[in-house]
Amino acid sequence: MYDSDRKELIPREQWMVDSEGPESWERKKYLARDREASCKFHVGIIMSRTNQSGGIHVYQTMTGCELRDDGSTTGFNQRGWDGQDFINYDRSNNVWVTPVPWGESIKNRWNRNTAYNQAWKDYLEVECI
Known about the structure:
The protein has helices spanning 14-20, 22-49, 104-112, 114-127; strands at residues 2-3, 8-9, 59-67, 73-81, 84-90, 95-97. The chain folds into two domains: 1-55, no CATH class; 58-128, MHC class I-like antigen recognition-like (Murine Class I Major Histocompatibility Complex, H2-DB, Chain A, domain 1), CATH 3.30.500.10. The two termini are 19 Å apart. The radius of gyration is 16 Å and the shape is globular. By secondary structure, the chain is of the alpha+beta class. A four-stranded antiparallel beta sheet has the order 3-4-5-6. The protein has a two-stranded antiparallel ribbon with strand order 1-2. Residues 2-129 form the MHC class I-like antigen recognition-like domain. Keywords: Glycoprotein. One of its GO terms (biological process) is immune response. It comes from Scyliorhinus torazame (Cloudy catshark). Belongs to the MHC class I family.
């Protein structure tokens, strides 16, 4: 669990830290802090794209990966806004896709950043596994 007040990553079980080692745990803490900053930044952008100036909103990110029995891997990163799909990373094509018109400008900006896309691909295929 990431505690945004303390800026700390808190293991639910100690074996999580012990099995991965301190360097890996520090990397995950860095990623959690980065995700927090990124979410705060994106909330403002999305609110302006959806013509919202206040209220309570939900920005959700789900990331996951799987090592299959045959040795192949799969992974995903998808984002939502107020319960609606907003943008998803297409790992096979190394691009972002969006089902909503207001997500087009964000998708286009992210797709121009090929290093960002490659970093997500590498994360899902290597580091996450």
